[in-house]
Amino acid sequence: MKRNTTLTWSWLNILTMKRHEALKEKFGDLDEALEHIDRDFLKELGCHGDTIEWSLQRLKEFNSESYEKEITKLGLKLITIEDDDYPNLLKQIPDAPVFLYYKGSLGILNNPCIACVGTREMSGYGKRAVEEFIPVFARSGMTTISGLAMGIDAKVARETLLQRGNTVAVLGHGLKEIYPSCNRRLADEIVESGGLILSEFPLDQAPEKFTFPARNRIIAGLSLGTIVFEAGKGSGALITSDLALDYDREVFIVPGQIFDKNYFGCNEAISGGKGKSVSSAKEVLEELGMIASEKSQVSFKPEDESQGVIFEALTGMPQSVDDLMEKSALKSAIINSTLTVLELKGIVKNVGGGNWVKV
């Protein structure tokens, strides 16, 4: 897809995966399809009257050169589902976003990812649950993913940063501004620490009622599993967990007292078979086929480049030397010798079958 085509279609914000595939089948590619946009084209695409008029006006006002400059000025990048670096797990869901704007390290999505969701009105119990689970996830090399909302989302991001782990914030609006404004500094800290913020929406898209459920499907789609830390009846966090089930991903739920309204949604989901009740991060990791790291490795200082590369490549998910060769681009002899040294230091462990994890 040509860059101008990418910019224009993402600006219009009308392409679903279904429409993307239909246009490719009819025109061969999105470049050719762009040349045919008119009222009849949009109607055939399935757009309603108001959307058709809005899209035509938006197309008329669009200047790709100015938009590209704005993206660059903000330090953002824009990729499409046709690009090689598009997140693999997200590509597997049926309603994957066609475009992703992002800032930060896209590579942390190659680590095992866990979606962490919950209410904006976080209780002391919910806070304690986050503080109990997140350090174990971080030590085990998991990337935490949340929505940067107030409450549980922000707490998850801050706790991950405190543990020097990797975290991702998926936003329900364009990345020109950060909402809520109180989390602007947190968004900066995420990027500065090697994390990632991303959105499927064009820069000028404001937060609206429909944008947050759309955001939730990305959170679920990027992750091996979703954990609900705290949710009242009808909580938006349960939209994310329901989507995770639809995508055949794991769902974990922290239970609460039966009289606590902040946990009505959690307890109801558990009783309805919509997730596994969990009381520790270790339970979550075991269900995902991972091994919980037992100690913090924040103080570990690699003695050479190969140690640093291997340390970053390893997680709580068992990996073979072949896996590490693919991720690190190092030769097998270097990997094997490095693993031996790190094992003697108590940093890594052979868990059998030639597979390795961080301790």
Describe the protein.
With 359 residues, the protein is α/β, with parallel strands linked by helices. The protein folds into three domains: 1-73, no CATH class; 106-287, Rossmann fold (3-Layer(aba) Sandwich); 305-358, Winged helix-like DNA-binding domain superfamily/Winged helix DNA-binding domain (Arc Repressor Mutant, subunit A, Orthogonal Bundle), CATH 1.10.10.10. The chain is 45% helix and 14% strand. The protein is built from 17 helices and twelve strands. The strands form two sheets. A nine-stranded mixed β-sheet has the order 1-2-6-5-4-3-7-8-9, with helices on both faces. Strands 10-12-11 form a three-stranded antiparallel β-sheet. The radius of gyration is 22 Å and the shape is globular.
Topology, pairings included?
Blueprint: H1 3-12, H2 17-27, H3 30-34, H4 39-45, H5 49-61, H6 64-73, E1 77-80, H7 88-91, E2 99-104, E3 113-118, H8 124-139, E4 143-146, H9 152-162, E5 166-170, H10 184-192, E6 196-199, H11 211-221, E7 225-230, H12 237-246, E8 250-253, H13 264-271, E9 276-277, H14 281-287, H15 305-313, E10 319-320, H16 321-328, H17 332-344, E11 348-352, E12 355-358
Parallel strand pairs: 3-4, 3-7, 4-5, 5-6, 7-8, 8-9
Antiparallel strand pairs: 1-2, 2-6, 10-12, 11-12
Helix pairs in contact: 8-9, 11-12
